[in-house]
Write a structure and sequence with these properties.
Shape of chain B: elongated
Distance between the termini of chain B: 73 Å
Largest sheet of chain B: none
Number of helices of chain B: 4
Number of domains of chain A: 1
Oligomer: heterodimer
Helix content of chain A: 40-55%
Strand content of chain B: under 5%
Shape of chain A: globular
Order of helices and strands of chain A: EHEHEHEHEHEHHEHH
Number of domains of chain B: 1
Chain lengths: 227, 113
């Protein structure tokens, strides 16, 4: 049981599956923080009666905001040295996070990203795959850091990175924001192969591809308005 | 290049810079008021002397006063859209910070209990 690692699970309308994810994470980690991003279903009740800590946004703010809230909450606990983010829809395996954590420690890295493309991925649609690969090229162009799978939800990072992260883009643009932070702060990073399986459940959820238009414009204006 | 083309292009550049330079909220409010006052003054003048728009239009290199009004209104609309976009983004940031504070406070409160 790891006491020095906080697992952060941003949750939005996942009442059916979140308990399964919490249970699998709880097998290895004691500090599990579920950030309910103003779900309209019973997600927060499910979390409240589980062994995870519930942090509940009063209104829906977006996945990036939920991740940052979880990090802020975990940072209050001075014992926490490592942070794990994982999706609430059961597409990741927590065992992969253990290997990523080991890699982070052994190689003295600041952040380790999971990658389904150097790892393996089950029942992904061709269109989604093409979409994610295109996003990877775009991300590499704008940040200068090449990751094979920048939009993965499974990441492990140390306290130093967590303290400097400060995500400001509320929605799914946060994946790119994290990479820009890595580039700006010259943090040491690596990718570790992980397994992602899209169940029928997670396929039915997922973010709409059209949202990539929002992400791209958000990032664009965010970058130029800072300069 | 005729005068109106120079004015319009300069205005678009000013908007773009305002949009990207992220001005502080007192600057936005002040400029909104200044432009609102100018707008009313010009509106009153054009109501009192409808033909004055034609004269100004000719001077700027436009054939009709109605066209001048159209260009002018386009600029006003763009200005207000940009302004409200900036304000909305700023408000959104504040709401995120506020909601996060509430969420963390609530969670801490529960932990102590």
């Amino acid at each position: 049981m790891k006491e020095d690692t906080a697992v952060i699970i941003p949750v939005f309308n996942e009442e059916k599956i979140v308990l399964k994810v919490i249970r699998s994470v709880k097998k290895y980690f004691n500090v599990v923080i579920c950030v309910d991003d103003g779900s309209s279903d019973r997600s927060s009740e499910v979390i409240l009666h589980s062994k995870a800590t519930l942090v509940k946004h009063p209104i829906n703010l977006g996945a990036g905001a939920a991740t940052q809230t979880g990090i802020d909450f975990a940072l209050q606990n001075k014992q926490i040295k490592y942070f794990v983010t994982i999706d609430a829809d059961d597409q990741h395996n927590i065992e992969d996070a253990l290997r990523m954590l080991k890699s982070l420690r052994d190689n003295k890295l600041d952040i380790v990203f999971g990658s389904r493309f150097i790892g393996s991925v089950e029942s992904i649609s061709k269109f989604k795959k093409l979409f994610l690969k295109t996003a990877a090229i775009f991300s590499a162009r704008t940040s200068g850091i090449y990751l094979s799978d920048p939009h993965i939800g499974l990441r492990v990072f140390n306290r130093n990175f967590a303290e400097n992260l400060n995500l400001t883009l509320p929605d799914f643009s946060h994946a790119s924001e994290i990479i820009h932070r890595v580039a700006d702060g010259k943090f040491k990073y690596a990718e570790v192969p992980v397994h992602v399986s899209y169940s029928d459940y997670s396929k039915s959820k997922g973010q709409p591809m059209l949202n990539s238009v929002n992400i791209t414009t958000d990032l664009f204006f965010h970058r130029i308005s800072k300069k | 290049m005729i005068l109106i083309q120079i004015i319009l292009i300069l205005a678009f550049i000013v908007f773009l810079f305002r949009f990207l330079s992220n001005p502080s909220s007192y600057q936005i409010r002040a400029w909104t008021k200044i432009l609102a006052v100018l707008f009313v003054i010009l509106a009153v003048i054009t109501v009192l002397f409808p033909n004055s728009t034609n004269a100004v239009a000719h001077w700027l290199g436009i054939s009709r006063g109605a066209d001048l009004l159209l260009y002018f209104l386009t600029l006003v609309v763009i200005f207000f859209i940009f302004n409200s976009y900036i304000q909305e983004k700023r408000l959104q940031k504040k709401i995120v910070i506020l909601a996060r504070k509430i969420a963390i406070m609530e969670a801490n409160h529960k932990k102590i209990k």
